[in-house]
Amino acid sequence: MPVREILQLGHPLLYEKSLPIDDPFAPESLSLIIDLDDTLADFRKTNGFGRGIAAPQIGLLRRVIFICTKEPSFSGALINPVITKGTDRKVELWDSCFSFPELMVRVSRADEIEVEYYSEQGDRLRLEAEGDLSELLQHEIDHLDGIPAVMRAISPQAFMTRQEWLRQGRPTG
Asked: Which contacts of 82-85 are long-range, i.e. CB under 8 A and separated by 24 or more positions?
């Protein structure tokens, strides 16, 4: 199980733009997808939360994210994802990240988006997402553009430690 170290907030690679994947079937592309899947599964097992991870978070500046959600059910890699549409309607929410797991940040995101990407099989697909999935995809695609969620904070007071979050009885997520 090739679990990779997750880079933490402040690491310079988290602020760099990722390069596209030219060949989804290349051994290094397939290896990256497996590493993302295994690292996400390990983080969830260890921490009890987590729905997605981006390649820059494990130190690889490639445009790949891996998602695993329950509602709506979606699991797999999105290669070279691009947000092609987004509603003007925004939602504010508390966001967390594997790269700063003890910090919550309040952000504003589009309520609905459309993402075009390549699947692991090389198919060009389109995904319409709303609510939690929309927010998650925006968060992970931001990582590909070198934008950690802390850069999307709605104000200087839009931060809370996970300990305070839990003390207030909020969901663990």
From this structure: 82/115, 82/116, 82/117, 82/141, 83/113, 83/114, 83/115, 83/137, 83/138, 83/141, 84/114, 84/115, 84/116, 84/126, 85/113, 85/114
| pLDDT bucket at 169, cuts 50 / 70 / 90 | confident
Q: Round to whole Å and give the CA distance between 147 and 139.
A: 9
Per the residue annotation, which of 5, 116, 135, 140 is the catalytic one?
140
Q: What is the pTM of this model?
A: 0.94
Overall CATH class of domain 12-167: alpha beta
Clarify whether 140 is annotated catalytic. yes
State which amino acid sits at residue 99.
S
